[in-house]
């Protein structure tokens, strides 16, 4: 990964445009031919998916081409050049405040293209600038096409290319030999685990050939010589391409789906079509039985009440479950791009319920699912109307001079920025801070970082920065395609090809409950955090009129990262230990962004790592000295938080007080507002 400075420079560099046309699902069959190993170069060069899949076939007659069917030891192969095709800049009509920017050559960002919806001014009123919801195949192709035009020149070294060609030819010959001997190929991939794949020779060999081609396309992508950002984009686009063209994704090449049609006498096909039509109307893939859950009925059920609200937030206080509680209350700040009830799903996996059971007076900040009326809200509004107001009210209700605070994901970023602004004013209302999968240093922002460059940010600023709404569904689509096999194609196969009804799963119900963001706030966050990484630079940023210096927070801080997190990579979370000038406790959990963070003690699953309280700059050096422990990291956090309880007192008989009476039962009305589909 590039350093933060280098990443910002890469992002600000003008990117050449490439001629990219979306292919069709029909290219899937060509994508499984032996020569498809060379499609990586064609895709990265800006060819359409259809052109990339057929390119090797066209090059077979060209003596200078290096193909998978070439001799094992070709003479002095030339490097495969990966270049953006020079074409006349496109002129997208971008709606901005005060008029159009017809002359702007910025490409439409991949996330917006994949979502298939406009996000310009007035989007919060239901207006769209794009087409109707499109299929997962088209979304994947749009995502790839949105990345490829920005790739500068890159190449694969001749020696590495020759090595890959020879290895590919050897492996392909092994497959051919096995087929001639009627030996079943090894299908070490869960997509092909069903016996229907093994029992049918043509389908099993199709799957085996796909796996072989996919493996070598990825190896070619990994061999590209370019700057780190381009390497990431090539690898990501190639992986998306490979995942999309799996024979499991198409009825014509999926024996399991075909067998089910026969076994059910066509019923699975009928149900699959119903599921498809329903999802096309929604504009998204159903990942769970959404009728099985209801916010406030069987998710977000911890007892409590809303005790304060303004145009942006509701503040919930939860009822005590212990006879005594800590004198310092605990404020939870969830991400504003999701609903807060990821921390209060059901009693047995609720962080809220766990904290209450540990004797804390727990408050939850519930962000509003903003609409057109909130389209002008800024980053400063989120600090002032969100964090500042809730800190004030919590202290006034409890009488505590200081409180403990926890921020999850972007909620932690907002919390840290707010506390730094308060510190600049000489105010220190918080005793301890917990950052749960939170980025402060955006030098390594994970997969999301490959989308964010100057063109992407400028496009968003032109369409959203003054008065606009970023649709929650657009964000949800982008996040799903970061893990397409688990969150897209798995459901394409089960819902549409096999006609299965999605199972009831609270986590995926929450995942589908998308949240809008106001354009000005979102654009400021993109530019100053993801693109320019300015939050860690002392006094570079000004928030609510104050110069921000994270070192001034000076609080004991518990930092949690998840080892398989693709949103906030654990090394980026670890970097918080180097940014904050305060006693820090870092704990690394197993699994990913959500499953790693929401790992309740009651389940006693997974594991976590702890180490010495000395944190070298190199996170891997820390990991080498860390000890893996079974179970949930929550217990480690709870033990740490005990040090900051501030003593004990009798539990309050009710929530709120005379000044702040209960307004409505938890979870409140803000969290129940769903973004229009």
Structure write-up:
The chain is an alpha/beta fold. It has a domain at 304-440 and 535-672: 3-Layer(aba) Sandwich (Rossmann fold), CATH 3.40.50.1820. Helices cover 38% and strands 12% of the residues. The strands form six sheets. Strands 19-18-17-16-11-10-8-9-6-5-21 form an eleven-stranded mixed β-sheet, sandwiched between helices. The chain has a two-stranded antiparallel sheet with strand order 1-4. A two-stranded antiparallel ribbon has the order 2-3. Strand 10 (403-408), helix 14 and strand 11 (430-436) form a beta-alpha-beta unit. Helix 8 runs antiparallel to helix 9 (228-244). The longest helix is centred in the first third of the chain and has 23 residues, at 158-180. 52% of the residues are buried. Mean pLDDT is 82; it is low at 1-133.
- The CATH topology of the domain at 304-440 and 535-672 comes to Rossmann fold
CATH top level of the domain at 304-440 and 535-672 is Alpha Beta
Output the strand order for the largest sheet: 19-18-17-16-11-10-8-9-6-5-21
Q: Strand-residue fraction?
A: 5-15%
Amino-to-carboxy terminus distance? 37 Å
Round the mean pLDDT to the nearest integer and report it: 82
CATH superfamily membership of the domain at 304-440 and 535-672, which one? Answer: Alpha/Beta hydrolase fold, catalytic domain
What's the tally of helices? 23
* Rg measurement, Å: 26 Å
């Amino acid at each position: 990964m590039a350093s933060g400075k280098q990443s910002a420079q890469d992002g600000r560099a003008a990117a050449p445009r490439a001629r990219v046309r979306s292919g069709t699902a029909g290219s899937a069959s060509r994508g499984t031919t032996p020569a498809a190993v060379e499609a990586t170069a064609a895709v990265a060069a800006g060819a359409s998916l259809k052109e990339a899949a057929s390119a090797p076939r066209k090059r077979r007659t060209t003596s200078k081409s290096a193909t998978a069917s070439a001799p094992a030891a070709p003479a002095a192969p030339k490097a495969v050049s990966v270049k953006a095709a020079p074409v006349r800049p496109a002129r997208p009509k971008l709606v901005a405040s005060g008029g159009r920017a017809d002359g702007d050559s910025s490409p439409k960002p991949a996330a917006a293209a994949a979502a298939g919806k406009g996000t310009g001014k007035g989007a919060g009123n239901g207006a769209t600038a794009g087409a109707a919801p499109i299929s997962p195949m088209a979304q994947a192709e749009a995502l790839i096409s949105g990345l490829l035009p920005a790739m500068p020149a890159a190449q694969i070294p001749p020696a590495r290319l020759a090595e890959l060609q020879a290895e590919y030819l050897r492996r392909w010959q092994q497959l051919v030999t096995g087929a001639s001997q009627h030996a079943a190929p090894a299908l070490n991939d869960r997509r092909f685990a069903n016996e229907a794949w093994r029992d049918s020779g043509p389908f099993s060999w199709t799957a085996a050939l796909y796996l072989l081609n996919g493996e070598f396309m990825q190896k070619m992508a990994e061999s590209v010589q370019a700057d780190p950002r381009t390497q990431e984009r090539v690898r990501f686009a190639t992986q998306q391409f490979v995942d999309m063209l799996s024979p499991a994704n198409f009825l014509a090449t999926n024996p399991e789906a075909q067998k089910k049609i026969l076994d059910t006498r066509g019923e699975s096909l009928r149900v699959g079509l119903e599921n498809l039509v329903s999802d096309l109307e929604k504009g998204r893939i159903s990942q769970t039985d959404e009728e099985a859950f209801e916010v406030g009925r069987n998710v977000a059920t911890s007892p409590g009440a809303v005790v304060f609200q303004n145009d942006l937030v509701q503040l919930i206080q939860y009822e005590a479950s212990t006879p005594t509680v800590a004198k310092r209350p605990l404020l939870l700040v969830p991400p504003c791009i999701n609903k807060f009830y990821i921390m209060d799903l059901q009693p047995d996996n609720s962080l809220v319920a766990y904290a209450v059971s540990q004797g804390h007076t727990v408050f939850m900040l519930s962000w509003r699912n903003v609409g057109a009326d909130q389209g002008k809200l800024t980053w400063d509004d989120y600090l002032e109307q969100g964090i500042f107001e809730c800190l004030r009210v919590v202290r006034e209700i409890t009488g505590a001079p200081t409180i403990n605070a926890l921020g999850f994901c972007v909620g932690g970023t907002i919390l840290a920025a707010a506390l730094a602004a308060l510190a600049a004013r000489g105010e220190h209302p918080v005793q301890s801070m917990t950052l749960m999968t939170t980025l402060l240093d955006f030098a390594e922002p994970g997969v999301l970082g490959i989308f964010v460059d100057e063109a992407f940010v400028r496009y968003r600023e032109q369409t959203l920065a003054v008065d606009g709404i970023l649709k929650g569904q657009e964000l949800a689509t982008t996040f799903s395609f970061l893990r397409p096999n688990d969150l897209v194609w798995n459901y394409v196969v089960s819902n549409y090809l096999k006609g299965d009804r999605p199972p009831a799963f609270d986590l995926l119900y929450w995942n589908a409950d998308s949240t809008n963001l106001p354009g000005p706030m979102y654009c400021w966050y993109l530019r100053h955090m993801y693109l320019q990484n300015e939050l860690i630079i002392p006094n570079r940023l000004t928030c609510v009129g104050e110069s921000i210096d994270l070192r001034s927070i000076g609080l004991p801080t518990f930092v949690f990262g998840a080892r398989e997190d693709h949103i906030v990579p654990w090394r980026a979370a670890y970097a918080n230990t180097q940014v904050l000038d305060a006693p820090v406790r870092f704990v690394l959990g197993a699994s990913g962004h959500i499953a790693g963070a929401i790992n309740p003690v009651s389940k006693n699953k997974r594991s976590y790592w702890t180490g010495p309280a000395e944190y070298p700059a190199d996170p891997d050096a820390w990991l080498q000295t860390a000890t893996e422990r079974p179970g949930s990291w929550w217990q480690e956090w709870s033990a740490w938080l005990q040090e900051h309880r501030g003593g004990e007192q009798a539990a309050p008989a009710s929530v709120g007080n005379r000044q702040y009476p209960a307004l409505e039962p938890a979870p409140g009305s803000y969290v129940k507002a769903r973004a229009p589909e």
